[in-house]
């Protein structure tokens, strides 16, 4: 039997790109909270490393920071972390769909710098880019840099917040916004 964690991020457990520093602010953690959390995760990594199945320096392993550190636990138990999009791709044959596509549309709640660090949207955009197929991201909000997004394979991105003008309106009427954006996309990409 094999233990595999399908992760959408490659963050380590601790440090500048670790779980606390990257995801803490999203959850409302202050700078002081982040320092406290990161220190606790460092101590936890020390405990995990006492397990005979734990790789050395588990805190620095790619994916160890996934799901607030669940990735580190999987690694410590002798498992491995695998890209979620790669796993789904392999299981459902997504490559064939990409090969037949003229346009790829993917989405995310918030398309930001973290989206480009192994999340599904980055995997989808990269697969489209590798095939020369345009890729459009539709998200609740967009803050990813255009150059970084383009390098990842994103041709353009659409934001519900920008579409409506306010986050409140986007949160209140997401289905309306997605329909309206889809109509605009269909008109713009029709061949």
TrEMBL record:
Ranges in coiled-coil conformation: none
SUPFAM superfamilies reported for this sequence: Glycerate kinase I (SSF110738)
Source species: Phytohabitans houttuyneae
Protein name (record): Glycerate kinase
Pfam families the UniProt entry points to: Gly_kinase (PF02595)
Gene Ontology biological process terms in this record: organic acid phosphorylation
PANTHER family assigned to the protein according to its UniProt record, in alphabetical order: GLYCERATE KINASE
GO molecular function: glycerate kinase activity
Domain of life: Bacteria
